[in-house]
Amino acid sequence: MNMSRLLWFSAVVCGALMAPHAVRAALITGGAGSTASDMGPMGTRDDSNVTTSMTATYQTFCSWLLYGMQSQFAGVNVTFAGYGNIGGLFSQVPPTDFNFLQYTPWVNTDPGAKEPTGFFDSRPVANQDAGGLDATLIYTPRPGSKDPTTVNFIQAFIANFNNTGFTTGGIDNLDDSTPFYNNKGVHGTDSTQLFTRVTNEPDKGLNALGSSAWLADVPYVCESWIPTPLLFVPRGANADCTGGPAPPNDEILTSAVESFQTFIESTQKIYYNDTLATPYSLTDNGGTAQTWDVLYGGVQWGFSYTNADPPNPQPVVPPPPSPAPEPSSILLMGTALAAWFCRPRGHGGVAASSR
């Protein structure tokens, strides 16, 4: 990591720490938390399974997303709207721009996430010790506002399996060449599912003008296997949750927490002229044109899953850490940044266990 990238990272984080937090954590329509339980063994299963969805909240900054972008897309400029001299050129979207068409936890058999098309996106899981979340998130820009209408979804995640500690932030882009979830994930505009892919350039993305953009996701886990470090289904296991050891040796994954941050992105052209008192501009100021991924706001959501052989109690799962450092964390920022940048950094794509 060169010094310019270190200073950039420091500026983005410190800007977020010092910005007002009044709107952050506003609730998202349709994103209330709930619990699904099978109340005990049925059919070929031997466990009691419980899945609980987290209450979905609005966010304006996400450290997990920032870490994931730096690790996987270090050559991409990214900023959060409303923060700093670059992000400050853009206005955040309000929480009311987001809503969930579906946000339903499930166990044993996946009924599927309903798309605006009327179809369902589901996993091939039936009568297994498993659990997950059917989620369809919709973004609708306000007419006549500065809300971006050519957009992409950038989704970050952290996970904790068997209470062994949370992973660092990763980008859920399904191993795409861009950080965008919507290039490979289920997505669309209005009531149409789309299959086109876009490049990370200005004016490229989903057209939500006078309409809406959406994504469908079904993250899930199985008792029969633990996802690999990249969160793929491990070798020897099956995506339908079969293929694991037979009882009583099937207690492989007993608890999981998966938390996501899904932000609206619009790729923007910004001009930089270091001879001016205000060097950054949205119009040509005689400087160098730069491309930036601007993040206008997003939603934190996710689920926890546990299983246990009755009459054993369900495992206790920890809450996910905050997606944004608290203001007091600024006192430790120098140490934290130094420690983080000493870690080895890979550049391969990462897919969440939701795929």
Concise summary:
By secondary structure, this protein is mainly β. 11% of the residues lie in helices and 31% in strands.
Please, could you describe this protein's structure?
The protein has 355 residues and is mainly β. The protein has one domain (3-341). 11% of the residues lie in helices and 31% in strands. The protein contains four helices and 18 strands. The strands form three sheets. Strands 1, 2, 3, 4, 9, 10, 13, 16, 17 and 18 form a ten-stranded mixed beta sheet that branches. Strands 5, 8, 11, 12, 14 and 15 form a six-stranded antiparallel beta sheet that branches. Strands 6-7 form a two-stranded antiparallel ribbon. The chain starts with a helix and ends in a 14-residue tail after the last helix. The model is unreliable at 1-8, 17-22 and 326-355 (pLDDT under 50).
- Whole-number count of domains: 1
DSSP helix fraction: 10-25%
Low-confidence stretches: 1-8, 17-22, 326-355
Counting DSSP H or I runs of 4 or more residues, the number of helices is: 4
Proportion of residues in β-strands:
25-35%
Query: What best-fitting shape do the alpha-carbon axes yield?
Result: elongated
* Average of per-residue pLDDT values: 86
Termini separation (Å)? 30 Å
Structural class: mainly beta
Cα radius of gyration in angstroms: 21 Å
Order of SSEs, N→C?
HEEEHEHEEEEEEEEEEEEEEH
Q: How many DSSP-defined strands? A: 18
Write the layout of secondary structure elements.
Layout (H helix, E strand, L loop, with lengths): L2 H16 L16 E3 L10 E6 L3 E3 L3 H10 L5 E3 L3 H4 L10 E10 L5 E2 L5 E2 L8 E10 L10 E12 L8 E2 L14 E4 L2 E2 L12 E2 L5 E5 L2 E3 L32 E18 L7 E2 L6 E21 L24 H9 L14
Parallel strand pairs: 4-18
Antiparallel strand pairs: 1-2, 2-18, 3-18, 5-8, 6-7, 8-14, 8-15, 9-10, 9-13, 9-16, 11-12, 11-14, 16-17, 16-18
